[in-house]
Design goal:
The complex is a heterotrimer of chains A (about 625), B (about 290) and C (about 240).
Chain A lengths: L8 H20 L6 H26 L7 H19 L3 H20 L7 H21 L1 H4 L5 E2 L13 H23 L2 H11 L1 H6 L4 H26 L2 E2 L6 H14 L4 H17 L7 H15 L3 H20 L4 H5 L21 E12 L2 E12 L3 E5 L6 H8 L7 E6 L2 E2 L8 H4 L1 E3 L12 H8 L8 H5 L3 H20 L15 H14 L4 E5 L7 H18 L2 E5 L3 H7 L2 E6 L2 E6 L1 H6 L1 H8 L9
Chain B lengths: L2 H30 L6 H18 L4 H24 L7 H23 L15 E3 L2 E3 L1 H23 L1 H11 L1 H6 L4 H27 L5 H4 L2 H8 L5 H21 L8 H12 L14
Antiparallel strand pairs in B: 1-2
Chain C lengths: L1 E9 L2 E10 L5 E5 L6 H9 L6 E6 L2 E2 L5 H7 L1 E4 L11 H8 L6 H14 L1 H5 L10 H13 L5 E5 L7 H16 L3 E5 L3 H7 L2 E6 L2 E7 H5 L2 H8 L14
Classes of the chains: A alpha/beta (about 625), B mainly alpha (about 290), C alpha/beta (about 240).
């Protein structure tokens, strides 16, 4: 499905008309199909909503959940009980219940902040089990294990008593839910979800608040399930508590696994196949679950991205074939003109704190008995490029991890422009203007090159879920501006031709440049680079050297770099600090460091005879 | 209040089976980093195998138990080879889904062959309660507790003294170092799945005389998952303590809170542990690494 | 043992760009170079922990570049990995026993364990202790002793001095020399170039995945390029004084 992205309105219309036509076709179906077929189509609509909600949570945000059917059940029972029991009209009950269920989803998502995916699966398993036990045993409200009767007139839906009218209602709601899902996943929020899925650490460094977005994903999931549940309460005459347990949850998983994890079209294709197939195979009813479970396993092994992923791959292959058959114009694109850095501006005010960017004093940290860092101090001036070097195990990475608030020091102070970093959270560093890159490059592998850079701007985009989901003008304006800036940045690092490719498909050197572009997108005042030259060949290293000097010279960004490649360090750094066994043993300009006896001993061992100063 | 000792003892009896399931989970998780959501189905498989041996082939119960151990181990190895080996490099998430799929496949395969008709087997020990002190307990419950204790003891000896047991412990700690010793890591995975499934199967054939056999039998021992989490998921003693704790709490909760919500107790325990003490009672705190 | 044109990748990164060298029988060969030069990757490629994409690795006439680690060990190549990778929750004695996993001569294994205790008397005292509770130097001893338990013909050591006090390092290197004297060939990766060259017969210097220099110890010790490999080429003009902390 073409993303409903920013762009000229007329353009969007041209792209959207096939969907409009499809919708129209679906809307006139009741005139030609049987009421049984209508029932199946209605079930399909509900299944699509369930799959969308689950896919946003699992496929996009990467959080495992077995609780889908529980939220579905809560929605169905709550709407049914409110309508049939208390006379609350469907139109009030549905949004109310959906919002309340979203709140429950938020609570269920809380363990996600502390535990790994296995435990999360268990926690959500516990939830689905608990809900089912409650549905079965709270007989006075839920009717217990025989189930609960429900009717559309009881829900205040007399106008939709005819099956075809109710089908149209489901079609309308499903369409809205699809559009909202598309908008969400293509907004800042969807990018934050995918970023968390692809790499939590990098997402956090880019300013994504993990707690907020993980629980938000659960809330959205619960919201979708509850809406589906409310529709279900009107569709069937009878709610069966066994339809809302663990196995139905796995059934919903099957929708998105077969359709395609992390794909909106997949959330429609999966249910389409799985709801219509059993109708085609009605003679084999008893084999149904078995066939589907085998299908799920085979999909996981052989088609990990589902039907949607398979179609994408075919399309890419087809495109590639056409490209090689056609003119050879790709060379021109892969050697782009690099734009000047002057197109960029930093949002951070010029130095205010006596020209000192980073001031670290007396930093100490022990792991068990081992002193990883001992009384380490270092001051980076505004606009300075400082290198931190030392033999393996000297404590360089520990130093960086302390700065980035992965560890908390046993003693010492860390100040950035005069502000202490000790009470700052990882995801807030970027707001202060500190951004790091990683030794083993942590891009969001499955996101496009452009989206990677856009995640870099996450902390500068202010619009929330409402603006993103409904594409309000303010949010759209902000998104367009972000795209414009991201394109400039990509031009700057020579990756504009690759903007719509997944980051994982880039060469290693390109990935390094992309990581740099993503860091620059956050408007940093201080860049922390963890071995930026590792894995690059000689010409790429030379290029990186030039780019980093430009970044400093034109943007005034201060840089603290850890690096092994000494030729690179000696050419790059203004000053060098040397760590050995957690202690700072020297500081000075490159040439002096190379001749420093302590440094030589640290690297080559004592009593090295071959040094001639 | 005089009920309490009785509740505790029957809680321990139920808990010992949870512990058996939990140990199977823990072994597989430690070696392969997979939480086997199909462990409940290995319980079901064990029960059906037992039924087959006893009522169809007319074998004595003890012979049936031995055959169940061997058969379950074989099923475990086959499943590992077919379903999980191809997914070694997949994200944990995919593997979780795969175990769920395997569970569904096993359950439905059994259903296809033997339908949903409940089956029963009779154990060798009496279901007539005897009185020990102020506590009533049936000999068959006692036998289960005794069997679990015996199995745990054998496992301890196996891991402490046998070459394979040591290789399994080594692999759980560092797969890379283990392979440098000449240990075939895939081989260890396969044997671990065999062992874990055998323990599940044993739990099945032990519980079958008490509750009957149907395709949902595995669900009866779902609190075994809770037991594993309570114990920290990486420790066998933890799994045992967790199992007994869950069994006892479930019984106490059933009486003092509400009998119809007895089944919820383990999950309340689970969520509490996850929120308050995510590494369980015996898990080691991890420093978040980058 | 002989490597010829070995190329190894980590994901998209080419870590080894055609490494070739030989380890003659009964000698100590030192593999030198700065961080990230590819020393560890070379050892991992030989031991089968990472598979070389191109090139050949030959050991006593057998091609091993595609062999899994357990087969390489069986052929008589043992690696003492960086960071030691002991089984921390197993006892010292159990660690040693696992070193002999592929052997079936239990009487001989017992004798070899005795021999290890004679070589490192402190390990006899600590044999029932969990390996993770030992000091760094003792752990290094366990790691070396464990590797010897497979009775290797070639012992590879990856940074045995890392994180150890100078006195312990001297002791470890003395042990390495003894092992060579017992007829085991040694391939030694070491950042501490002086220490390595003090016991080696021959050395190779790696720089960004390639062998850039080789020679006997005397040649390497007098070559200023060795230092450059660690600290980079001469930088610009000197400032008056480096600050000392």
């Amino acid at each position: 499905m073409a993303p409903l992205m920013v762009g000229a309105r007329g353009n969007a219309l041209a792209r959207l008309w096939p969907y409009g036509l499809l919708l129209l076709l679906l809307a006139v179906l009741p005139a030609v199909v049987s009421s049984y077929a209508l029932h199946i189509l209605s079930t399909l609509g509900i299944a699509v909503i369930l799959a969308l909600g689950l896919n946003i949570l699992m496929g996009f945000a990467g959080q495992v959940s077995l609780a889908n059917a529980a939220f579905f059940g809560i929605g169905a029972y709550a709407v049914a009980v409110l309508g049939n029991g208390y006379g609350v009209t469907f139109w009030l009950a549905l949004p109310l219940v959906a919002l309340l269920t979203a709140g429950i989803g938020f609570l269920v998502g809380l363990p996600a902040l502390r535990v790994s995916s296995h435990y999360l699966a268990l926690a959500t398993l516990a939830f689905v089990w608990t809900v089912q036990v409650v549905l079965i045993n709270w007989v006075s409200v839920t009717g217990g294990s025989p189930g609960l009767t429900s009717s559309r007139s009881g829900l205040g839906l007399s106008a939709f008593r005819a099956d075809w009218t109710y089908y149209l209602l489901i079609l309308a709601v499903t369409t809205v839910m699809v559009v909202l899902a598309v908008n969400i996943v293509h907004s800042k929020i969807g990018r934050a979800f995918t970023a968390i899925r692809d790499n939590e650490n990098a997402a956090e460094i880019m300013g994504v608040n993990l707690a907020k977005y993980k629980t938000l994903a659960f809330a959205i999931n619960a919201f979708y399930c509850a809406v589906a549940g409310g529709l279900q309460a009107g569709l069937v005459r009878f709610l069966d508590p066994y339809e809302f347990g663990l196995w139905p949850s796995i059934w919903h998983l099957l929708y998105i696994v077969v359709g395609g994890l992390g794909s909106i079209p997949g959330s429609i294709l999966g249910p389409l196949v799985l709801v219509s197939l059993p109708e085609a195979l009605r003679g084999f009813a008893e084999y149904r679950e078995l066939i589907f479970a085998v299908l799920m396993l085979l999909t996981l092994i052989y088609l990990p991205n589902g039907i949607a992923g398979g179609i994408d791959r075919l399309r890419q292959r087809w495109r590639a074939d056409r490209a090689t058959a056609g003119s050879n114009d790709t060379d021109a694109a892969s050697a782009p003109q690099r734009q000047s850095a002057t197109v960029l501006t930093t949002a951070h005010a010029p130095p205010a704190h006596g020209g000192i960017s980073l001031e670290v004093a007396g930093l100490t940290l022990s792991f068990g008995g081992l002193k990883a860092l001992q009384d380490a101090s270092l001051t980076v001036k505004e606009g300075e490029i400082r290198a931190l070097i030392g033999p393996n195990g000297a404590g360089k990475t520990t130093f960086l991890n302390l700065l980035c608030r992965v560890y908390t020091p046993d003693a010492g102070t860390m100040r950035f422009r005069g502000r202490s970093l000790l009470d700052v959270k990882s995801h807030d560093l970027v707001r202060l203007g500190i951004v790091r890159t990683f030794q083993n490059i942590r891009l969001f592998a499955k996101m496009t090159v452009l989206d990677n850079v856009l995640v870099g701007m996450h902390s500068h985009l202010d619009h929330g879920i409402i603006g993103c989901a409904w594409r309000l003008p303010g949010a759209m304006e902000e998104a367009r501006e972000a795209q414009r800036k991201a394109s400039l940045l990509l031009g700057y690092v020579g990756l504009e031709h690759a903007r719509d490719m997944p980051a994982a498909s880039l060469s290693f050197g390109q990935q390094r440049r992309l990581e740099l572009a993503r860091a620059l997108a956050a408007d940093p005042a201080l860049l922390l680079l963890d071995e930026p030259a590792s894995g690059l060949d000689k010409s790429e290293v030379a290029e990186l050297l030039a780019v980093l000097h430009t970044i400093r010279d034109q943007l005034g960004v201060s840089i603290l770099v850890i690096e092994h490649d000494m030729n690179f360090v000696m050419g790059l750094a203004d000053r060098i600090t040397v760590l050995d066994h957690g202690v700072v043993i020297a500081e000075g300009i490159p040439r002096d460091i190379q001749r420093d006896q302590l440094v030589i001993e640290a690297y080559l061992g004592k009593g090295h005879a071959l040094v001639e100063a | 209040m005089e009920l309490v000792p009785q509740l505790i003892v029957s809680g321990i009896a139920a808990g010992s089976l949870y512990a058996l399931v939990a140990i199977g989970l823990v072994l597989i998780y430690k070696a392969t980093d997979i939480v086997n959501f199909a462990q409940g189905e290995s319980v079901t498989v064990g029960a059906y195998m037992g039924w087959l041996c006893i009522t169809q082939f007319r074998l004595p119960y003890f012979v049936a138990v031995v055959l169940v151990l061997a058969g379950s181990a074989l099923v475990g190895m086959i499943v590992e080879r077919v379903a999980y080996r191809p997914l070694l490099k997949s994200p944990p998430f995919t593997v979780i889904l795969a175990t769920l799929a395997v569970g569904l496949i096993i359950k439905n395969a059994i259903r296809l062959v033997w339908q949903d008709t409940p089956r029963t087997i009779s154990g060798v020990f009496s279901a007539e309660p005897i009185e020990i002190g102020s506590v009533l307990i049936t000999p068959e419950r006692l036998a289960i507790m005794f069997t679990v204790a015996l199995v745990v003891a054998l496992l301890v000896l196996f891991f402490r003294f046998s070459k394979l047991g040591k290789a399994m412990r080594a692999t759980a700690q560092s797969q890379e170092a283990a392979s440098l010793m000449g240990i075939s890591v895939p081989g260890i995975f396969s044997k671990t799945w065999a062992l874990g499934s055998a323990l599940g199967g044993l739990a099945g054939v032990l519980i079958a005389p008490l509750v009957g056999i149907n395709t949902e039998l595995g669900a009866v021992l779902v609190p075994g998952f809770v037991a594993a989490v309570v114990g920290g998921f990486t420790s066998i003693p933890g799994a045992i303590v967790g199992g007994i704790l869950v069994g006892v709490l479930e019984n106490l909760g059933g009486v003092f809170i509400s009998s119809s919500f007895k089944q919820v107790v383990p999950f309340v325990v689970l969520i509490t542990v996850l929120m308050v003490l995510p590494t369980g009672l015996f898990g080691k705190p991890l420093r978040k690494a980058v | 043992m002989k490597l010829d044109g070995v190329e190894t990748f980590y994901g998209a990164v080419k870590a080894l760009k055609g490494v070739s060298f030989t380890v003659p029988d009964g000698s100590i060969v030192a593999l030198l170079g700065g961080n990230g030069a590819g020393k560890t990757t070379t050892l991992r490629s030989i031991s089968g922990l990472t598979t070389a994409r191109k090139g050949t690795i030959e050991f006593n006439g057998t091609r091993i570049e595609k062999s899994p680690p357990e087969r390489v060990v069986g052929l008589g190549i043992s690696l003492v990995p960086q960071g030691r990778l002991l089984f921390a929750e197993l006892t010292v004695a159990e660690n040693l026993e696992l070193g002999a996993y592929l052997r079936h001569d239990s009487a001989e294994i017992k004798r070899d364990i005795e021999k290890a205790y004679e070589q490192f008397p402190i390990l006899r005292q600590k044999r029932a202790q969990e390996a993770g509770t030992l000091s760094g130097g003792q752990q290094q001893m366990v790691a070396i002793a464990r590797s010897l338990m497979s009775r290797p013909k070639l012992l590879m050591l990856d940074e045995p001095s890392l994180g150890l006090a100078p006195m312990i390092v001297a002791e470890i290197f003395e042990t390495i020399r003894k092992i060579r004297d017992d007829g085991v060939s040694i391939l030694l990766v070491e950042q501490n170039a002086n220490m390595a060259l003090s016991i080696a017969n021959f050395g190779y210097v790696l720089e960004s995945g390639k062998v850039v220099m080789s020679g006997n110890v005397a040649q390497l010790l007098s070559d200023p390029r060795v230092q450059q490999a660690y600290l980079g080429q001469e930088a610009g003009p000197a400032a008056p004084q480096a600050v000392r902390h």
